[in-house]
Description:
Elements lengths: L3 H13 L9 H7 L1 H15 L6 E5 L3 H5 L8 E6 L2 H10 L7 E5 L12 E7 L7 H11 E12 L4 H9 L13 H10 E8 L2 H13 L7 H13 L11 E8 L1
Parallel strand pairs: 1-2, 1-4, 2-3, 4-5
Antiparallel strand pairs: 5-7, 6-7
Amino acid sequence: xxxxxxxxxxxxxxxxxxKLDRTxxxxxxxxxxxxxxxxxxxxxxxxxxxxxxxxxLELGSYVWASWIKGHVQPKKLxxxxxxxxxxxxxxxxxxxxxxPTEFHLMDANNLTFKDESFxxxxxxxxxxxxxxxxxxxHVHRVLKPNGFILFLEPLNMxxxxxxxxxxxxxxxxxxxxxxxxxxxxxxxxxxxxxHFFMDFFSVIFGFISLKIYGDRNxxxxxxxxxxxxxxxxxxxxxLHPLFARVVIYGYKK
Length: 253
């Protein structure tokens, strides 16, 4: 079994050297996620409005540029990354913003900030690269009382997704693990939270749509049906393990 230090070195290597290859999945995502990306943007606009005038920490270093830049102004944004190359991406996006920014080369599994330093901690597709227990314990520690969390993460509970991931290892770092039910139990230890589940039927209908239309015409009736079915079925708790992605938001216990 790999140590955390070995995993961290692999993560740094993959991100610094741009080793991931998602060429195969991108056309399907453009179909399957077309309408959920629109929904996601609306949800994030509402949820990130809570960042206004707050001390905000991103686990990661440049998701903030698409989530909050030009939309909401925090009191200060602090961002961390284990990869220097990824950190530089964040620094590049921070030119000419109207709020203070600070960037640190840091392991999210071992945050070195003082207790109760931040009002908000958030991240996009980051928790599944980490030791969830260690990271959330640190997130809880550095958050102020009633501090807010927001994460967008992939899921790995649907058996079909599990098979796909096994067959396409080039799309992810070797040690990442999309969230499963045990990770939600860890979340419950530290936070009261809610969620929006996305992309089950949209993946099925998106696959059919891709076969019919090719890599174009994403705004079509098939993808629209998949999206509408997702909105309905995502309200049924026992169907949540079938979905591909989740938005998690809540407060420090």
